[in-house]
Design goal:
Layout: E1 2-8, H1 12-25, E2 37-41, H2 48-53, H3 60-72, E3 75-79, E4 99-101, H4 103-112, E5 119-123, H5 126-131, E6 143-144, H6 148-162, H7 167-184, E7 188-192, H8 201-204, E8 210-212, H9 213-224, H10 231-235, E9 240-241, E10 244-245
Parallel strand pairs: 1-2, 1-3, 3-4, 5-6, 5-7, 7-8
Antiparallel strand pairs: 9-10
Helix pairs in contact: 1-9, 4-9, 6-7
Protein name: Aspartate racemase
Pfam families: Asp_Glu_race
Keywords: Isomerase
């Protein structure tokens, strides 16, 4: 019996980072106090952006197969650390005994609880920018997106990360893009909405106010599994906003 199941492989490196954050953010004093986690790392799941933008093969069948496998393995709750995959959430099929932790819904609940005076700029794949999947659950007028030129640069960075290029080697390119966006919208909070670019968070948060949907999903997963948060480790990544610390919500 596993308390949490992770449908991963979208991409593989992002899956590893998601597991690392769950472990890092869980209040535990020994191995036995951590969450029992089952990870299905399935990189063969069809590309989500290709399916949305270019009408490629849908990932739904492969993802739903993973839900079936999770039931067989006795998993209670399931999380998918891929923002773009949640475009297909209404096509997901899983039995009632599975508690699906919806990244888009959890992000919406969290952001709607904050009293922010600045726009939130969503940094995601081309498909996230095109579909604007976060707009459904977040108050109107709060979100903005990169323009076409900025999004092209961001999409190329994501592709490079998936191809194996290290985050450190892309840092200057990434920071230049953030600077352009920040100046264009006259200041904003960045919402990292692609698990490939979550690897930039530690550096990004030194210069900008930012949030990462991977963090929100990790925190929600810990809480929904009945565990407490290691607030000391969380505090490293959360900056102060006009309404207080992001961490106060939890």
């Amino acid at each position: 019996m596993f308390q949490l199941g992770i449908i991963g492989g979208m991409g593989p490196l992002a899956t590893v980072e998601f597991v690392r954050r769950i472990i890092n953010y869980t209040d535990a004093n020994c191995d036995q106090e951590h969450i029992d986690i089952c990870v299905l790392n399935v990189p063969k799941i069809p590309d989500r952006t290709e399916a949305i933008i270019h009408y490629g093969i849908s990932p739904v069948k492969a993802i739903n197969k993973c839900f079936v496998d999770m039931v067989t393995l006795g998993v209670k709750s399931v999380a998918i650390p891929c923002n773009t995959a949640h475009y297909f959430v209404n096509e997901f099929s899983y039995p009632s005994e599975i508690n699906f932790i919806n990244l888009i819904e959890e992000t919406g609940i969290f952001l709607n609880s904050l009293r922010l005076t600045k726009k939130i700029c969503v940094l995601g794949t081309q498909a996230v920018a095109y579909s604007k999947i976060f707009n459904i659950n977040i108050k109107q007028g709060v979100l903005c997106y990169p323009n076409d030129v900025e999004q092209k640069v961001l999409s190329e960075i994501i592709i490079k990360i998936k191809s194996g290029i290290k985050h450190d080697d892309l840092m200057n390119e990434y920071n230049d893009m953030l600077r352009l966006i920040y100046n264009r919208v006259n200041g904003c909070i960045f919402l990292i909405a692609c698990t490939e670019i979550s690897g930039f968070l530690e550096v990004t948060s030194k210069y900008y106010k930012c949030l990462d949907t991977m963090d929100i999903l990790a925190i929600s997963s810990i809480i929904k599994c009945g565990y407490k948060l290691n607030r000391k480790n969380l505090q490293e990544f959360y900056l102060e906003t006009d309404s207080g610390c992001f961490l106060e919500y939890y």
